[in-house]
Structures are given as C-alpha cells and as structure tokens.
Write a structure and sequence with these properties.
Helices cover 29% and strands 32% of the residues. By secondary structure, the chain is an alpha+beta fold.
C-alpha cells in the first residue's frame, strides 16, 4: 500500500531510528537536548569557529531547538517535500511522489493521519485522511500509536545531540549555496535498538531487519557557520537512504489536523 510506504519514508527522512537512540534508560527528548547555554551559532561551518565535532553538533542542536521549524526537501530514492514544526504545537507534514502518485502523512501532536488514495477514500465515503490515534482501541492502533508517539524524537536538535558523542568531521562543502562543515556519526545498531522504547519481541524484529544492512547506522549533517543544519542524510536503514535539505528555519507554521468531516479510522476501513 502506498500509504504504508510513505510511513516508512517518514521514518527514514526524519532520522527517526537514529533519534530513538535517546529514548532508552528513562531518558526523554528533553534529556537529550542541550541547555540554552550551548554556544549557538558556533557550529563550525566554513568560516565558523573551530569546535570539535561533538561540540559543534551540540551547538547546532541549540540553534535548531531555537529555530523550532523548517521546510524540508527530500531526495534519494524518494522525492518529496515537508513542513516540520518541532516546537509545541508540533506538526509534521510529508508529501512524496511515487509512480506519479502523491502520498501524504501528517502528524499533529501524538496523532498520525495518512492521506487516503482514491480507492480508500471511495470506501470511506469520500473522506481523505485515515486517523491513527494512540489512544484508540481499534485493531492495529496500538502499534501505530507507538510510532506516532515518537514524533517528538524526530526533532533535529535531538538527533544532533544523539549523534554528537560519536561524531567526526568529514570535510567542508558548499550545499545549497552555503558553506558548510560536514559531520558523520556512526551509531551501533545493537546499542540503538537497546535504547528504543519497544516491546522485547519488537526490538528483536527491528534488530534483525537493521542488521541486514550492516552493524551501524550512519547519520550525516552539513552545518553552516551559524550552526544551522543545511542538509542531513541517513544511511544503513533497512529502507535505504535519503537526504533532507532544510530551509526556511523558524518560518513554518503548525499544520492543523484535518476536519472531522475529512477523517476516517482504521476500524472504519476494516469494516468495508
């Protein structure tokens, strides 16, 4: 189903699995973020100050936390665009195209909405969004809800903080017309999965799938002299790789949830 592929892409392009590395052992997204005293603006892009890789990523995390939102352009196997607000009220809208057809996925708070294709919309009385609510008790809602609840971990500030301890500098490059410093961080798969807030049996399944692509997941960041992430890439996931280009930092407004008249549930669709 195209909608399910879109969900997988959402995981990939936002670095969800890497971000989940901050969630174990009682830690939260807030625990992973650096304090406001981090040296924002000193991320070490071309012409920036000479910070070590770990310090540069932590400084950039503070910058991205303050920005709170951005427009995204996705490439690498799947082409798409997104609007992500990681400040409260949080929302994430991703639009992709595959085989000439458009797919959408939207997170608002802890609820996920999947854009319905023509067939599903027809079965749902013309309603165009399928709602997956973690509080729902419909079949399948529990596992989907667990996925939706991790939206806070998609925050690029969290991803930077998680990647910082193992980060290394990989050179300087011009990206989207901006001078940047390129950083790379390798996160061991077993360590990453161990920190995920998943049931033991699901952890085993995830670990098995990820190990098919290697023992580590690599996340890369291209950071400008202001400490802003210009581009991000993830490699080593079972779903492939993708690049995300950030723009319009701090300018994106939260996406509102679809009206009730446009929404159907997974249970509604299963009744058809």
């Amino acid at each position: 189903m195209r909608a399910l592929r879109t969900v997988a892409v959402a995981c990939l392009v936002t670095g969800l699995l890497t971000a989940c590395g901050s969630s174990g052992s009682g830690s939260t997204a807030a625990d992973a973020k650096p304090g406001a005293s981090a040296p924002a603006g000193s991320g070490g892009g071309q012409g920036g100050s000479k910070l070590g890789a770990k310090e540069a990523l932590l400084a950039s995390a503070a910058v991205m936390e303050k920005a709170g939102s951005a427009k995204l352009s996705v490439s690498g196997g799947t082409e798409g665009t997104g609007e992500f607000v990681w400040k409260s009220p949080k929302s994430f809208l991703l639009t992709t195209k595959s085989e000439g057809k458009e797919s959408k996925i939207l997170f608002v708070g802890d609820v996920m909405y999947v854009g319905a294709g023509a067939d599903a919309a027809g079965k749902a009385g013309g309603k165009t969004w399928m709602k997956i609510d973690p509080k729902a008790t419909a079949p399948g809602a529990g596992s989907a809800g667990g996925f939706a609840s991790t939206m806070e971990l998609m925050d690029p500030a969290v991803q930077l903080a998680v990647a910082a301890p193992t980060a290394t500098q990989a050179g300087t490059e011009t990206v989207a017309g901006q001078g940047t410093t390129h950083y790379r961080s390798d996160v061991p798969v077993e360590e990453l999965v161990a920190k995920m807030q998943l049931a033991p049996e699901l952890k085993s399944q995830v670990l098995t799938e990820l190990k098919k692509k290697g023992s580590t997941i690599t996340t890369e960041f291209w950071i400008n002299a202001k400490g802003e992430v210009v581009q991000q890439a993830s490699n080593g996931l079972a779903t492939g790789s993708a690049k995300i280009l950030y723009s319009g930092l701090g300018t994106v407004q939260p996406t509102k949830a679809p009206a009730d008249s446009e929404v159907f549930s997974l249970a509604d669709l299963l009744k058809q």
